[in-house]
Write a structure and sequence with these properties.
By secondary structure, the chain is an alpha/beta fold. 45% of the residues lie in helices and 17% in strands. The protein contains 11 helices and 9 strands. The strands form 2 sheets. A 7-stranded mixed sheet has the order 3-2-1-4-5-9-7, with helices on both faces. A two-stranded antiparallel ribbon has the order 6-8. Strand 2, helix 5 and strand 3 form a beta-alpha-beta unit. Helix 3 crosses helix 4 and helix 9 runs antiparallel to helix 11. The longest helix is centred in the last third of the chain and has 19 residues. The protein starts with 5 loop residues before the first helix and ends with a strand.
């Protein structure tokens, strides 16, 4: 569901900045997720590496907009995290990427990695909020995002901003953690508490809102089944490596992970969650 008050949007920004700015969260993503593509993976087999599956999601999403990507193309990555997708797009297609992200600690690592890999000339990392995108309308060829919109306190405003800066011939591709359309409104409350968000959107919300903004060519590649495999893998990795992780993650936060991740597994098993790749454009 969308949270539409200005106050709610501001709270969500503060929560996201706090969440992604902590050392424990940073260490969890670095150690368990690989610190590159920190989003849901598409798994070729049950016990595949989380990092490998997460990179496959980037590749599948990029394939949907490959016709728009290339030298001279500009991509806006909303909620760019540590920059794995931005680096993939820049290196693979030679496009310019503007990476807008609220966490300065993530952005410092993003910039450093870009420089180490010789990609800092193609990627501009900007600290800021996707609720108020600091670029003019009709500016970007592609708007991209992966598992970031769930942190928005006003998703309608966010989507309006994303469409505003998109060229009339541009395309938007994104993934997000969502509640299933049929899930009760509070069904995921326990699972999402760790992310400090008030609730998730649904596929129906995105379809209704995005088509209402004029991107009527709307495709949802439903991969909801991958969420169960993904959270099983995260639960297994965290549990099996608990002693090792205790050296880099505070015991209280690690214990919270060990209690929270099974809630995600249970929610996925009950069909309460949804996830996939959205591809949207004008007629």
């Amino acid at each position: 569901m969308a949270v539409v008050s200005v106050e709610g949007a501001a709270r969500a920004e503060v929560a996201a900045r706090r969440y992604y700015g902590t050392g424990d969260v940073d260490a969890f993503y670095a150690e368990v997720w690989g610190g590159e593509d920190i989003h849901t993976g598409v798994y070729a087999e049950r016990h595949e590496s989380v990092a490998v599956a997460s990179r496959r999601t980037v590749e599948l999403a990029a394939a949907k907009v490959a016709g728009r990507l290339g030298p001279g193309c500009t991509v806006l990555d909303l909620g760019s995290g540590y920059g794995g997708p931005a680096r993939y797009l820049a290196q693979t297609f030679g496009c310019t990427v503007v990476a807008l992200n609220i966490s300065e600690s993530q952005n410092r690592r993003h910039r450093q990695t870009n420089a180490e890999r010789g990609l800092d000339g193609l990627i501009e990392v900007v600290t800021g909020s996707f609720q108020d995108i600091p670029y003019p309308e009709d500016h970007f060829d592609v708007v991209w995002s992966q598992e970031a919109f769930c942190h928005s306190g006003d998703r309608e405003q966010l989507l309006g901003e994303a469409v505003r800066v998109l060229k009339t011939t541009g395309e938007m591709v994104f993934t997000d953690l969502m509640a299933a359309d049929t899930a009760p409104s509070d069904a995921l409350r326990g699972a999402v508490a760790r992310l400090e968000v008030e609730g998730f959107a649904t596929p129906a919300f995105y379809r209704r809102t995005i088509t209402g903004l004029g991107l009527t060519r709307f495709d949802f590649d439903d991969r909801s089944d991958q969420m169960l495999t993904h959270y099983l893998r995260l639960t297994e990795e965290t549990g099996q490596r608990a002693k090792e992780l205790a050296g880099v993650i505070h015991p209280a936060y690690l214990q919270g992970l060990l209690e929270n991740l099974p809630l995600w597994v249970e929610a996925c098993e009950k069909g309460l969650t949804s996830w996939g790749i959205f591809h949207c454009r004008r007629p």
